[in-house]
Specification:
Layout (H helix, E strand, L loop, with lengths): L8 E2 L2 E2 L1 H29 L5 H30 L1 H18 L8 E6 L2 E7 L8 E4 L4 E6 L3 E4 L2 H4 L4 E3 L3 E6 L2 H31 L8 H29 L2 H21 L13 H5 L1 E3 L2 E2 H21 L2 H25 L2 H24 L5 H9 E2 L1 E2 L2 E2 L7 H23 L6 H25 L6 E2 L1 H28 L5 H24 L5 E2 L2 E2 L2 H36 L4
Parallel strand pairs: 12-15
Antiparallel strand pairs: 1-2, 3-4, 3-9, 4-5, 5-6, 6-7, 7-8, 10-11, 13-14, 16-17
């Protein structure tokens, strides 16, 4: 065990933890800041349909998880965690700053008779209103099921009402700036792939085997993650909606640059705990002047290229990840049957169960950045104390609730355990899935209470984020802990890779679900509030009841899963 007296410490912990805390805090600041704006940006700046935006968002978040498997493997075998985190932070910084090159966006052109007009918005976010622009001026417009109504028709030289079948709408896109968007997303995917898993590895390496400070250190690190997510959702979300997309994305980029500079300037504080397994191996020539280290970086460039291709063709992601997920499942089950025996085999099957059981939870929870984000912006009364709060700002609620309730939940499990009432891990998982469904059913009740076209009271947004956060605290830390305890030490890395792979699949499935809530939009805003609201009620009711049904099934089999865990 490392001797704490031999290390530089701050508040009793290795001083390297401070560097990792702030590096990860700023990385999460950049990631969640961009994430909160992305779906609104796609629908309003590039004028993608809700369906395309949701699927693209799902593909992007899925690839972020999947690429951590490659980044983690390269760090374990060759690069070491320090070099991998540095490379990932550089890619992330480039990706986030790339998001600030937005151009003029796409143009929505309305053809009426022999004349062409532009449909645009007077701002960003859910409060923006649609305008029609002509050579003479501009006027606000409103769409019904059958007509387009023009507030001041004389200003733009058009009739006050135009039937839907009398005009056509097309979109002109600045392809160069759209390609910059795809490249930026690909850089972020690759950057997270190299940084996310490996920075957690460094945290663990700061503490020797049996060091009692380890759990406390990870708790502090986890708070850094949520602090970054909380602050970014507020500040990046506000700047992006109120002042301009580039300011929100730019602030996210500044955050990531700050994290990179902190990590580079204080690497000595890590005291050599994250170095490559073999410096000699890294220097070995592979081809001409390319050594193993540069080959790893070229793999990173390959990840960028492949990710850019996939986000440009987002529908391909499910077709690729689905078969990979099946092969991973076959591999895990086959390994358990052929190579493991007795308690090890039983525990491995329990680990496989938890890896799969996370899917329904994350598929619903990850609506937060896509369909729930759009719903909050468009169909919720967001006025609080006289301020119309931008939709993306509400994504800070998840991290805020974790600050408040994670310590209480941790205390609750200890209190229940002392009384022999602590629910088993399978029961906690089932309750987490149930809460994912319950959150959406609560939101549906709020929608129904406000009528066909009324705005949903904002209290129901607070409610769904609180319920989902409680569910997250029953699934995420509990599941990760269970998998690392259940999987045999020699394949725990592969099993954790499977956890991230199925997390990625869950995120893509979340995009598929979000796509079904898509409403018709012109200029990036809905044209039929009643139809959009009915669509949300139908989809959210279905997924809510399905999730509760799955949770009941999980509760029924939980005694058998608990038995398979063999006391772990």
């Amino acid at each position: 065990m490392n001797n704490p007296a031999e290390q530089g410490t701050i508040f009793g912990h290795p001083r390297g933890l401070v560097i990792l805390f702030f590096t990860e805090m700023w990385e999460r600041f950049s990631y969640y800041g961009m994430r909160g704006l992305l779906i609104v940006y796609l629908t309003q700046h590039f004028l993608f349909s809700d369906e395309k935006s949701s699927l693209l968002y799902g593909a992007y978040t899925a690839l972020v998880y999947v690429m951590t498997i490659i980044g983690g493997s390269l760090a374990d075998r060759y690069l070491g965690a320090r070099k991998a985190v540095t490379f990932g932070a550089i890619l992330l910084t480039l990706g986030h700053f790339g998001m600030t090159f937005e151009g003029d966006g796409s143009k929505q052109l309305l053809q009426y008779g022999e004349s062409q007009y532009q449909v645009t918005l007077d701002g960003r976010g859910g409060d923006a209103r649609q305008l029609i622009v002509s050579a003479q001026g501009r006027s606000y417009i409103n769409f019904t099921e059958t007509t387009m109504e023009i507030a001041e028709p004389e200003v733009v030289g058009l009739p006050a009402n135009i039937a839907r079948d009398q005009f056509t709408i097309t979109v002109e896109t600045q392809q160069g700036y759209l390609d910059i968007l795809y490249l930026s997303l690909a850089l972020i995917i690759a950057g997270v792939g190299f940084l996310k898993a490996n920075i957690s590895t460094i945290v663990g390496s700061l503490y020797g085997f049996g060091d009692a400070r380890r759990d406390s250190g990870f708790t502090i690190f986890y708070m850094g993650i949520n602090l970054g997510a909380f602050l970014s959702s507020i500040f990046c979300g506000y700047l992006g909606i109120v002042y301009g997309w580039k300011y929100g994305f730019g602030l996210a980029g500044i955050g990531m640059l700050g994290g990179l500079l902190i990590f580079l300037s204080c690497q000595s504080w890590l005291e050599g705990k994250a170095e490559p397994p073999s410096e000699e191996k890294l220097k070995e020539k592979v081809f001409l002047f390319i050594n193993v280290e540069w080959l790893c970086y070229l793999v990173g460039a390959g990840i960028v290229a492949v990710s850019m291709l996939l986000v440009k063709n987002e529908e391909l992601v499910g077709g690729i990840l689905g078969p990979i997920g099946i092969l991973m499942l076959v591999g895990l089950v086959g390994y358990a049957l052929v190579r493991l025996h007795g308690d090890e085999r039983s525990r491995m099957f329990a680990a496989i169960y938890f890896v799969l059981a996370q899917i329904p939870f994350w598929a619903l929870f990850e609506q937060a950045g896509s369909s729930l984000n759009l719903f909050t912006a468009r169909l919720v009364d967001r006025e609080i104390l006289g301020w119309s709060v931008p939709g993306p700002v509400f994504q800070s609620l998840n991290a805020g609730f974790i600050f408040i309730f994670a310590p209480l939940m941790a205390w609750l499990w200890v209190w229940l355990a002392r009384r022999h009432l602590n629910p088993s891990t399978p029961v906690k998982f089932a309750l987490g899935v149930a809460m994912a469904g319950l959150g959406f059913l609560l939101l549906v009740s709020g929608m129904q209470s406000s009528g066909d076209i009324g705005l949903t009271p904002v209290i129901f947004i607070f409610a769904i984020y609180w319920v989902h956060t409680m569910g997250e605290l029953m699934v995420s830390p509990v599941g990760l802990s269970a998998v690392t305890k259940l999987a045999p030490a020699r394949i725990v890395g592969m099993t954790m890779g499977a956890w991230f792979l199925y997390s990625g699949l869950s995120n893509f499935l979340a995009g598929v679900i979000a796509r079904t809530t898509g409403a018709e939009t012109i200029g990036g805003q809905m044209t039929n509030v009643a139809a959009a609201k009915a669509g949300y009620i139908e989809v959210y009711s279905q997924v809510g009841y399905i999730a509760i049904g799955i949770s009941v099934l999980m509760l029924m089999i939980s005694p058998q899963i608990n038995k398979m865990m063999r006391g772990a």
